[in-house]
Amino acid sequence: MPEHHDTQHIAATASLRSLIQLRHGARELTGFPSFRARRVTQGGHRSRFRGRGMDFDEVRVYQPGDDVRTIDWRVTARTQTPHTKIFSEERERPVLVICDLRGPMFFGSQRLKSVVACEISAALAWAGIAANDRAGGLIFGQQGHIDVKARRSHHAVLKYIHALHNFSCKLLELQAEHYTLADILAEARRFLLPGSTLFIVSDFYDLDQSCHRSLFELARHGNINLCHVFDPLEKQLPPPARYAVTDGQRQMILDTHDARVRSRFANTYEQRYRELRTLSEQLRSGLISFDCSEDVMPALKRAFGKRHSRNRR
Fold first, then answer.
1. Alpha carbons 175 and 162: distance in angstroms, whole number
2. What pTM, to 2 d.p., does this model score?
3. pLDDT tens digits for the chain (313 residues)?
4. How many Cβ atoms sit within 10 Å of the Cβ of residue 225?
């Protein structure tokens, strides 16, 4: 395949120019992210940040890692169990975007999931800057990953976007898989800043119990949003016929005439999605689904536009 240039865009990779142009649409995400109040001077939003601040919020049982200076000695003496005071503090919430660009994302009947994931991630990073917060994130490919420290700077977003483009191009090279989703979430725990708004952009194909544990740990320190990327072919097999399919190395014939096979296929997708939806409810996180046959901005506007819903589903 010839060397890639943005002026001769290969549909299998994310266009650098398109990712940069998403900054214009991201400005319309006026409810991004949605919190209780706004103050531009210290970041765009009031958060219920668990830390030392101006306003007392509640008392709860002391947890490892809590600041010992916030221990409520009166409640501790009365209950004989260590308790700590929790405060509401107004401050910025760094926006961190984790983009999954592993091998399974290199699939699509109309547009590749990897390209759509890059567009979602770029738009979210731009929206973070537009909300006057710091923005950065992590990108995971088949053989490596990169982290871009969250900064209130267009240069940080551009660095992140260039990395999205580069990792997208690397998917053209067939390589053995190195990371699992559990590995990605474990790395995110080391990268996450307390009080962050975290977006995880993936198809979540290998979501398992170890992922659940990491997500609950992440939810203790930040506000999680799951961005589920799917292709229409993953929900339902194409019309009854015989199709030649390939993974880039092997080729086989897929026969979609059998009604039982079609039903099992659809049920498998629905079961996976129900698991993801239930998990998001338990995490009290946002869940936004992105159909690869559609543009990403309408889905983002439904979630974060002027009339955004608190339940982002």
1. 21
2. 0.77
3. 334 444 344 478 999 999 999 999 999 887 777 543 233 333 444 333 333 334 566 788 887 777 788 889 999 999 999 988 876 544 567 899 999 999 999 998 889 999 999 999 999 999 999 988 899 999 999 889 999 999 999 999 999 999 999 999 999 887 777 899 999 999 999 888 888 999 999 999 999 999 999 999 999 988 999 999 999 999 999 899 998 887 667 888 888 999 999 999 999 999 999 999 999 999 999 999 999 999 999 999 998 876 544 444 4
4. 23
Rounded CA-CA distance 280/287 in Å is 6
User: For residue 43, which of 144, 163, 152 has the smallest C-alpha distance?
Assistant: 152
Tell me how far the alpha carbon of residue 234 is from its chain's centroid. Answer: 20
Show me where the domains of the chain are located.
Answer: 16-30+92-304, 55-88
Q: CATH says 16-30+92-304 is which class?
A: alpha beta
3-state secondary structure the chain: CCCCECCECCCCCCCHHHHHHHHHHHCCCCCCCCCCCCCCECECCECCCCECCCEEEEEEECCCCCCHHHECHHHHHHHCCCEEEEEECECCCCEEEEEECCHHHCCCCCCCHHHHHHHHHHHHHHHHHHCCCCEEEEEECCCCEEEEEEECCHHHHHHHHHHHHHHHHHCCCCCCCCCCHHHHHHHHHHHCCCCEEEEEEECCCCCCHHHHHHHHHHHCCEEEEEEEEECHHHHCCCCCCEEEEECCCCEEEEECCCHHHHHHHHHHHHHHHHHHHHHHHHHCCEEEEEECCCCHHHHHHHHHCCCCCCCCC
Residues β-bridged to residue 135:
95, 151
